[in-house]
Design goal:
Layout: E1 4-8, E2 15-22, E3 28-34, H1 37-54, E4 60-67, H2 71-85, E5 112-117, H3 121-124, E6 134-138, H4 148-161, E7 168-172, H5 179-186, E8 193-196, H6 202-218, E9 226-231, H7 234-238, H8 240-244, E10 252-255, H9 257-264, H10 276-289, E11 292-295, H11 304-317, E12 321-324, H12 328-337, H13 341-359, E13 365-367, E14 370-372, H14 374-389
Parallel strand pairs: 3-4, 5-6, 5-12, 6-7, 7-8, 8-9, 9-10, 10-11, 11-12
Antiparallel strand pairs: 1-2, 2-4, 13-14
Helix pairs in contact: 1-2, 2-4, 5-6, 11-12, 13-14
């Protein structure tokens, strides 16, 4: 049986290290080292003592090395340490930030998704100011295996306490079946969306949804929790349409090119030739299923020109957006996937012609001397909706979206 647990990181900004050790007596020895001892030392001690009392923990030595951790971080680190040493199940929950958004819509625009390592609080705290469409608190690849347990509590507390300024609150859990353990901690905090990595079969979606629905029921959650499966293998690509249509709460599907190319034995290149088939297959599966489609991240955060070229190719393939791993990429993603002024003008003319045909009771939409099919009208409406979401649509055209 373990007698000592160490969680957190004392050398990381906005984090702390907690060392919890069992002792041979019933006393509680609490020591705090903090750069802000004079301002916050008393409150740090009070929170730690409150948590030890909540869990009825005695006979321990607690040492906290604080580097500016907020309360939700300290609470997550100490809870993880306690649960490593003691058989306790209860969750210690600080008051929730009631300003957090409760729900998001199926058709919400998800052009940019910013990945944040789930065990690094410094990257979470102000992430919303960069205005991505979604913020992904990641429990998978960015978290070391030995840190995944404590990352769950940090992500849970972040969902309760951080203001992401309107960004959709997403969590990437671990691959099935390990990710089911993540759900038990995350779902009670009502995230907007769960990303399912390395998804290969529709059955995985069904099992995940079963767990989500059980947790929603037991915690009185009525909001829909959306899913985005991530396809990262040859088998996943082959089964993409079955996965995309497995459940009604699937709003999109993404591809992870790094894992996909490794699975097929190829090297990822700047041109992306080795992934064109898979990326096109994902787009086609998503379009057939009527859901959104998201491209893989571009991993070289310093290569702006390479990112722009990747976005251009991605848009030509039909993707709606992509993930990113650094805030500096968000601007280029939003600009790259946005409709051009020429496209907006053309789409506006098509929708206006459609509205005029409706008023006249005509069954045919004509634009000049050309007949316009309904799929073209729908595509124009979608383009204008995307332009409106980015503030690119002039006022007089907004009525045409109705």
């Amino acid at each position: 049986m373990e007698t000592i647990a160490i969680t957190g990181n004392k050398s990381s900004k906005s984090d702390c290290e907690v060392i919890l050790e069992k002792t041979d007596n019933s006393a509680v020895n609490l020591t705090v080292y903090s750069k802000v001892e004079r301002l916050y030392g008393r409150s740090i001690r009070a929170l730690a003592q409150s948590m030890l009392s909540f869990y009825s923990i005695k006979g321990v030595s607690v040492t906290i090395h604080d580097n500016g951790a907020l309360d939700f971080v300290l609470a997550a680190r100490l809870e993880a340490a306690i649960k490593k040493l003691f058989p306790v199940d209860a969750a210690f929950l600080l008051p929730v930030n009631r300003s957090l958004p409760a729900r998001t819509g199926r058709r919400r625009h998800r052009v940019s998704r910013l990945y944040l390592p789930g065990n690094t609080p410094s990257l979470m705290i102000n992430a919303g100011i960069h205005r991505p469409d979604g913020i992904i608190l990641d429990l998978e690849d960015s978290v070391a295996p030995e840190k995944k347990m404590e990352a769950r509590y940090l992500v849970r507390n972040a969902l309760r306490h951080l203001d992401f300024y309107g960004a959709e609150r997403m969590v990437r859990i671990n691959p099935y079946p390990m990710g089911l353990d993540d759900l038990a901690i995350i779902i009670p905090e009502n995230p907007n969306l769960i990303l399912l990595p390395k998804c290969e079969r529709g059955m995985q979606i069904t099992v995940v949804n079963h767990h989500i629905n059980d947790l929603k029921s037991s915690h009185g959650i009525n909001n829909e929790i959306w899913l985005i499966p991530i396809i990262e293998s040859a088998l996943g690509v082959i089964n993409a349409f079955d996965i995309a249509t497995e459940a009604p709460n699937i709003v999109g599907m993404a591809i992870g090119v790094e894992d996909y190319t490794a699975d097929i034995g190829a090297q990822r290149s700047a041109e992306g030739i080795e992934s064109l088939y898979a990326r096109s297959a994902i787009v086609n599966a998503c379009r057939a299923a009527g859901i959104q489609t998201s491209d893989s991240v571009y991993s070289d955060v310093m290569d702006t020109e390479g990112l722009k070229a990747y976005i251009q190719q991605s848009k030509q393939l039909g993707f709606d957006g992509m993930g990113c791993i650094h805030p500096r990429q968000i601007r280029w993603i939003h600009e790259g996937y946005a409709p051009t002024s020429e496209q907006i003008t053309q789409a506006g003319a098509i929708v206006e012609a459609y509205q005029q045909a409706k008023v006249k009771g005509l069954g045919v939409v004509a634009l000049g001397a050309k007949m316009v099919d309904m799929p073209v009208v729908k595509r124009a409406q979608n383009l204008l909706a995307a332009a409106q979401a980015r503030g690119l649509l002039i006022t007089e055209r907004k009525e045409n979206l109705k």
